[in-house]
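Customer escalation, tier 2.

The customer says the design service returned an amino acid string that "doesn't look like it belongs to this structure." They asked us to rerun it and document both sides in this ticket. The original structure tokens are below, unchanged.
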């Protein structure tokens, strides 16, 4: 089978986390982490890996077994977990050092059961606590289908980022078109 080596490789990468994850699965219905991403999230100059632990869903896929929360856990265990409530998973990425403090920020679209409208969350580590680097960015699936980048460094203004969000002109607007807007916002640090 073509996917066997990949599965085995994935196992090797996440093996140190498996016992922990399986304990979790037994008690809280958490799945084994299968997605990973890299960056220097605490600014110590060493690359860190992050792993997503998403909740297991029931047989209809309409509710969580246990709490509907997603955990992002790190290879460097001195970095605290990110715990995202009302979230059934996601694929976080490093979005680079947006606030120029030497750490990479993390962006993730918050998955939920329904709706094309989902917030994009951006986290930054401040005094070893995760905080939202910017307010949640409201996105519509149209902007994801069009590969719009939700956040990037504003090269013209230090400590600022350009965010791209979706907005509906309003419920009185007959054509119901959804636009992508851009603005520069200060990134918390
Ligand atoms: Ca690091
Ligand atoms: Ca940073």
């Amino acid at each position: 089978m073509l996917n066997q080596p990949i599965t085995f490789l994935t196992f090797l990468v996440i093996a140190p986390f498996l016992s922990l994850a399986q304990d979790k699965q037994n008690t809280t219905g958490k799945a084994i982490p299968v997605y990973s991403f890299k960056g220097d999230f605490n600014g110590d100059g060493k690359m860190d890996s992050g792993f997503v632990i998403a909740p297991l869903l029931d047989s209809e896929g309409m509710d969580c077994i246990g709490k509907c929360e997603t955990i992002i856990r790190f290879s460097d265990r001195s970095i605290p977990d990110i715990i995202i409530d009302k979230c059934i998973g996601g694929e976080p990425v490093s979005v680079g050092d947006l606030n120029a403090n030497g750490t990479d920020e993390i962006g993730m679209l918050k998955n939920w059961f329904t709706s094309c409208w989902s917030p994009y969350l951006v986290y930054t580590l401040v005094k070893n606590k995760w905080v939202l680097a910017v307010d949640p960015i409201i996105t519509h699936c149209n902007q994801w289908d069009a590969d719009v980048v939700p956040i990037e460094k504003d090269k013209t203004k230090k400590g600022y980022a350009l965010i791209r969000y979706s907005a509906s002109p309003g419920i009185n607007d007959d054509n119901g078109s959804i636009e992508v807007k851009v603005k520069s916002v200060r990134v918390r640090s």
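Tier 2 assessment: The sequence is consistent with the input. Residues 107 and 122 are 4 Å apart (CA to CA). The chain has one domain: 4-186. Sent an explanation to the customer and offered a walkthrough call.
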